[in-house]
Design brief:
Distance between the termini: 143 Å
Structural class: mainly alpha
Strand content: 5-15%
Radius of gyration: 46 Å
Helix content: 25-40%
Oligomer: single chain
Largest sheet: 3 strands, antiparallel
Order of helices and strands: HHHHEEE
Shape: elongated
Strand order of the largest sheet: 1-2-3
């Protein structure tokens, strides 16, 4: 009798070679197939995630599109020529901008010589920079500094001389008593 064989009856083509050949080719091919499969799975998963995010953010995307269209429409409207806007002027600088010929006095047809503005009037009109923000000095009818000056932002008042120099120890909260 013949002795029983202890191996598979059929062998794969890679196993059918001679007995001394190494069988490493199938492992390399299996690794390549596995790598390509994983890569394809990652690409498909990425596309699926992108589609899901686009679908879940559809409302926000629509909102952004409508805002963008609105901004474009406003941009087109802005190029249309509009009438100039009136600018607000501080009331204490109003006499500086009034035309003297419209006050009702029609004395002479020759223009009055322009006099130079005093330092107080220049500061009140904003023509000269002042160290206190939002402060405009009050001037009397001669263009000198009024005796009492107040900074409304800090609710402080003080006394000054005609040249605007602060009198010592006169700064108080509220109105100052200037003699």
């Amino acid at each position: 009798m013949a002795e029983p064989q202890e191996g598979p009856l059929l062998r794969t083509p890679s196993e059918q070679g001679s007995v001394g050949q190494p069988r490493g080719g199938s492992n390399k091919q299996a690794l390549k197939v596995a790598g390509l499969t994983v890569l394809a799975a990652v690409l498909i998963a990425g596309q699926a995630f992108t589609a899901y995010m686009m679908y879940s953010q559809k409302d926000r995307l629509n909102s952004l599109e409508s805002h963008s269209a609105r901004l474009e429409e406003l941009g087109r409207r802005a190029t249309v020529v509009r009438s100039p806007m009136k600018m607000a002027l501080p009331m204490n600088s109003l006499p500086l901008f009034l035309d003297e010929s419209t006050t009702g006095d029609k004395k002479a047809s020759t223009p009055a010589p322009k006099k130079e503005l005093s330092r107080c009037l220049q500061e009140a009109a904003g023509l000269v920079e002042i160290q206190l923000p939002d402060f405009r000095p009050r001037c009397d009818e001669n263009g000198d500094y009024a005796a009492q000056q107040c900074w409304d932002l800090a609710k402080k008042c003080w006394c000054v001389d005609k040249s605007g120099a602060i009198l010592q120890d006169t700064m108080v909260d509220g109105p100052a008593q200037c003699g």
